[in-house]
Amino acid sequence: MTAVLIALIRCDGPDCGAETHTPFETSRASVVRRFRRPGGWRTRPGGRDLCPACWKTGHR
Questions:
Q1: Mean pLDDT over all residues of the chain?
Q2: So where are the chain's domains?
Q3: Cα–Cα distance between 9 and 30 in angstroms, integer?
Q4: Residue 33: is its pLDDT beyond 90?
Q5: How far apart are CA 49 and CA 55, in angstroms?
Q6: Cα–Cα–Cα angle for 11, 16, 32, rounded to 5 degrees
Q7: How far is CA 14 from CA 33, 37, 41, 43, in A?
């Protein structure tokens, strides 16, 4: 049996539980952020991650 680390990004918006990851194996959050940026995920100063829904509603 093997174990695989999968990086997961959680939205830091208020009362939001959105999560995202990549369809391929990676253990680096920076790879997930780069892969999900075209889909609307944003990273703010201080390392805060925001999902597309929170970004559109102005939780910046």
A1: 90
A2: 9-57
A3: 10
A4: yes
A5: 10
A6: 20
A7: 19, 20, 15, 15
